[in-house]
C-alpha cells in the first residue's frame, strides 16, 4: 500500500502472510518533513479489507462526510481519512514501533489530499491484501 502527498510518503509492504488468527506483518516506511523511518507492525487482514472498503465508499459518496480508518489492535498503525463536502480529505496518522523496554517510539501528523487520490489508494490497499493472502476485489 502506498500513499503519497506533498508532505507525506507512507508505504506498507508485506512481511508475513495472514495466519489462522487473521494477523499479518507489514514493513512500514515513512518519510515526512525531514523525518524518515521504518519498522515492522502487526495488523489483522480484516483491518486492511475494511479500510479498502471505506475508501471505496468515500469515493462513491464524494460530497458527503465519510471516514476511512486503518487502525490495528496493537498500537502500531492508526491512519484516518475524513472527507469534506467539497472533495478535500483531511488525514492524520500515528505510527508506533514495538515497545522495547516498555517505551514507545511514535510519530504522528496530519496531511491533506483530494478525492482524486482515492482510486489509486484503494487499488494499492487491495494489492497489499492480495499479497498478504487475502481476496482481491479486482
What does this structure look like?
The protein has two helices and eight strands; from the N terminus they run E-E-E-E-H-E-E-E-E-H. The mean pLDDT is 91. The protein has helices spanning 45-60, 118-131, and strands at 2-5, 8-16, 23-32, 35-44, 67-71, 77-83, 88-96, 106-114. The protein is of the alpha+beta class. A hairpin with a 4-residue loop joins strand 6 (77-83) and strand 7 (88-96). Strands 1-2-3-4 form a four-stranded antiparallel beta sheet. The chain has a four-stranded antiparallel beta sheet with strand order 5-6-7-8. The protein has a single domain, classed as 2-Layer Sandwich (Secreted effector protein pipB2 fold), CATH 3.30.2450. Helix 1 (45-60) runs antiparallel to helix 2 (118-131).
What keywords describe this structure?
8 strands, Secreted effector protein pipB2 fold, 2 helices, 4-stranded antiparallel beta sheet, alpha+beta, about 20% helix, about 140 residues
Amino acid at each position: 500500500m502506498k500513499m503519497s502527498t506533498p508532505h507525506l510518503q507512507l508505504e506498507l509492504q508485506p512481511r508475513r502472510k495472514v495466519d489462522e488468527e487473521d494477523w499479518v506483518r507489514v514493513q512500514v516506511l515513512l518519510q515526512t518533513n525531514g523525518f524518515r523511518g521504518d519498522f515492522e507492525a502487526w495488523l489483522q487482514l480484516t483491518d486492511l479489507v475494511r479500510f479498502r472498503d471505506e475508501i471505496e465508499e468515500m469515493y462513491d459518496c464524494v460530497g458527503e462526510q465519510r471516514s476511512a480508518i486503518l487502525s490495528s489492535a496493537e498500537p502500531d498503525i492508526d491512519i484516518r481519512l475524513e472527507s469534506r463536502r467539497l472533495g478535500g480529505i483531511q488525514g492524520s496518522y500515528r505510527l508506533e514501533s514495538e515497545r522495547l523496554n516498555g517505551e514507545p517510539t511514535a510519530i504522528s501528523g496530519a496531511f491533506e489530499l483530494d478525492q482524486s487520490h482515492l482510486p489509486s489508494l484503494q487499488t494499492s490497499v487491495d494489492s497489499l491484501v492480495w499479497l498478504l493472502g487475502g481476496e482481491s476485489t479486482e
